[in-house]
From TrEMBL:
Parts of the chain that traverse the membrane: none
Family: In the C-terminal section; belongs to the class-I pyridoxal-phosphate-dependent aminotransferase family.
Keywords per UniProt: Aminotransferase, DNA-binding, Pyridoxal phosphate, Transcription, Transcription regulation, Transferase
Top-level lineage group: Bacteria
Segments forming domain HTH gntR-type: 1-69
SUPFAM superfamilies according to UniProt: PLP-dependent transferases, Winged helix' DNA-binding domain
Native organism taxonomy: Bacteria, Pseudomonadati, Pseudomonadota, Betaproteobacteria, Burkholderiales
Protein name: 2-aminoadipate aminotransferase
InterPro entries: Aminotransferase_I/II_large (IPR004839), HTH_trans_reg/aminotransferase (IPR051446), PyrdxlP-dep_Trfase (IPR015424), PyrdxlP-dep_Trfase_major (IPR015421), PyrdxlP-dep_Trfase_small (IPR015422), Tscrpt_reg_HTH_GntR (IPR000524), WH-like_DNA-bd_sf (IPR036388), WH_DNA-bd_sf (IPR036390)
Molecular function per GO: DNA binding; DNA-binding transcription factor activity; pyridoxal phosphate binding; transaminase activity
Amino acid sequence: MNLYEKLADEIEEAVRRGVFAPGERIASVRQASQHHGVSIKTVLHAYALLESRGVVETRPQSGYFVRESAAPRAARKTALAGAVASEVDVSRLVLSTLRSIRANDAVPFGSPYPDPSLFPWRRINQYANAIARRHSSWNLIDDLPPGNPELIRQIARRYAENGVPVDPDEIIITVGATEAINLSLQAVAKPGDTVAVESPTYYAMLHAIERLGMRAIEVPTHPADGIDIDALAEIIGRQPVAACMVMPNFQNPLGFQMPDARKKRLVELLAAHGIPVIENDVYQELYFGDTPASTLKNFDTNGLVLHCASFSKSLTASYRIGWAMPGRYRAQVEKLKFLNTLTTPSVPQVAVADYLRHDGYDRHLRQVRKAYRQRARIMTAMVQRFFPAGTRTSAPQGGYVLWVELPERVDSMRLYQAALAHGITIGPGYMFSTKNDFRHFIRLNYSYEWTAQTESALRTLGELVAQMA
């Protein structure tokens, strides 16, 4: 291979990998000569070859630029489709799915995130900018754990309005609900302990257990009633269980709202055995009914419920403001917060507190709930229309995800790969269990606006399912 051909291949590979974006200027002839240690003549030959291949184009008086069509969409999707090995590793699968959502033109059915266009992020950013201008330097001591006092007051006020008895002194601000869950788990269990979880369950809870060297034991979970309390009682009777982790409201991926009687029974069962329960309630404000759902905290008389939530699903995902109400474990969680991350950034806390105080959070939530309720109906109807016989869907009572059971012959990993090749992301069932119990299930996100593109993508997905079935 000639030297100029080698140089051209290196640049083309860099373009294919996204080092140089379409429309971006590449190094001048002189710069390339210096950087690669070759003659100007060699660079000119290489650039001419790249032009002939359609990778770059010249612009008079400006230089060489990557052509808009240099990284074909099909090539990008093919690369994404090969991102996960055939042997499923849940952590790698989740990371690959999250990365694939960022691909150009990818339809985000697999996204765990809500549609950001529904959030008042510009208004919250205005508050943050105003705060930054007012305070050229911020006293870090002000927002050491438990966090900003006004934000804590606003959160406590919110719970009081929703009928949940809360002591503001119990609230600890965290970096999103994920940190709240991790800190709570550290406070109640140690490496080697067994933690009971729903099955299927949200993968972030499995990650927390794995990262801390604990063992998850999966408990069958009903798509309308929640965790099987009798099965959990049987497990507790035959082996030590250090803690339980559940999502009683609008569970991800099933979308159910656990009935109050069952919430009360679950809390009583665990209290009888002295077992703490970590309640992930990040979707609590996204209910489809007329009134807010109760929480496990409503039925806790022993301080064994560690309640975790955030604003990431209802107000702003970018600021990652969460909190924990850890009951009798409050002192330990506060200490762990200090040891792990010291503080939660101050400006986002104050900006969110200012929004809650001044800007009509309830009005915003009504709009979001209405949008999600409508989009849930549309997504459910379209799955029933486009997918083959034998497909069944959950009936979400809130949140923004739909759990879909496919015909048994369909493997969700194969479907995941095939969908990526068409620029469509999904959440394969493998992500929601440490076992293979949900190999023919997928999770779909319906929070985004329904468009001709999303309808076409769902139709294509249904065709792929039909082929595999």
